[in-house]
Design a protein that fits this description.
14-stranded mixed sheet; mainly beta
Amino acid sequence: TVFSGEDDIVWTETRVPFGQQQKLCLSDGTVLYLNSGSRVTCPSSFGKKGPREIFVSGEIFAEVMHDPGRPFIINSGDVNVKVLGTKFNLKAYENSECVELFLMEGAVNFEIKDGQGTGEIQLKPGNAVQYDRKTGKAEKTCFQNNDFRTFKDGGAIHFFNITLRDISY
C-alpha cells in the first residue's frame, strides 16, 4: 500500500501474511526482518534532517544504520523505541498484551506512553524489557546474547515470562 503524506513524502505499508517472513531494506541502509503477521509503515526515503521514523505492528528484528545526527524512531502504539544504530528484536503485536524488546548490539531507549505521561527505560546489549499493556508495568531483565536466537535466525521460538494467551498470537 502506498500513500502520500506531508511534504510529498510517500509512505509505504508492508504487510507480511501469517506463516511468512520478509526482509525490508530502507533508504538509509537499515534492514528490517518482519515476522509473520507483522506490518511496517515507512517513508520511501528519509529526509536529510530530523529523525528517521517508522510505524510497526508485529515482530521485527532491526539492523539500524548508525547515524548519530538522526535518531531512528519506531512507533508501536503505546511504545516507542529510539535508536542511533543497533540490532534488536521488537515484538509488539497490536492484539497482544505484552511488548518485548531484546537488545543485541548498541543502545536503545524504550519509551512507554500511557495516559499519565511517558516513561523511559535505557537498554544496553544483553538487556530485555517486557511491558504489560494491561497493567502498565515494565520489567527490565538480562539475557545471554549467545543463547538467544530471533525468528530470522532459523525460526526458533523462545518464551520468557510471557502469558499463554500472548504465545498464541
